[in-house]
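Blinded run. Sample ID left blank on purpose so nobody reads anything into the name before looking at the predicted structure. Input follows.
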Amino acid sequence: MSEKENPPSATRSQVSFREVDAGSDGQRIDNYLQRELPGVPKGRIYRMLRKGEVRVNKGRVKPADRLKQGDTVRIPPVSVATRDTPQVPRHLTERLRDAVIFEDKTLVVINKPGGIAVHGGSGLSFGVVEAMRTLQPDWQDLALVHRLDRETSGALVLAKKRSTLRRLHEAFREDRVSKVYKAMVDGYWPHGGTVIDAPLSVRERRGGERHVMVTADGKPSRTRVEPLECRRYASLLMLYPETGRTHQIRVHLAHMGHPIVGDERYGEEARNKELAAEGLPRLFLHAQSIAFDDGVGGEQIFSAPLPSDLSQFEDAILAKPTVSEERRGRRR
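Blinded prediction complete.
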């Protein structure tokens, strides 16, 4: 079964208050509302903003105003499109059940497979959240603590309770969360261990698609890089984002001239095709671990093994000679 939207029907919502998470930090309020209210026409959304029906932290906002993580958005009663409960394919729910690496009364942590969106929207009737809710009857309040791009695999944390979600969002705001990513980039990485300090701005493309760029007036963004293995063809890196901007790792590495292999948005199409022919399955970006102090149970650390589709390609790249080995071979 495809992930296309089911035909919607209209229903009247009630006033709701939503807390802005890390994945929506920096997003324009009009675009945020379009995502949160998929059945509401754009004209209605702009009228709500113009009349002050939508409030952020109890204050009026303009369509171009940008949200910050932790903001509280008041959404007024409005007729929204509702859909039938999405019919999630059984093979996907089983795959996600097998991907669970931790569960208790408050949290579920999974090793998200690459290629699956974290939530429905933009033409998809379901994502990880909706699929996970079908696994257990008491998971209906399951919510994302943070986001991963659709093609990115790795550790993804979901909260079972609103109180847990609030605590973890607070941990993000207070920099009590650390993440480690593994990536393979195109070409030989010559920079050694370094910190990429390049401000980022979100640009809106036609159709509402978000595209991130390095700009002088962007938000401060820092990513620490530690190389693992470097070959002439590609290099393996460990990434430690010190800030949490949209597409931060992908844009920072492309800015350095070494885009992540398989990145269809910020990489090079011709090079991606070459690597796909050599067995590259998708974007080579994996959230290897996440650690946080939720203020209740102390520090918790969760690790997600590199999935087999990426590990097989990694083995193939590491089987190639290093630059020094190539030089020694040429001297013989």
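Unblinding after everyone has recorded impressions. The radius of gyration is 21 Å.
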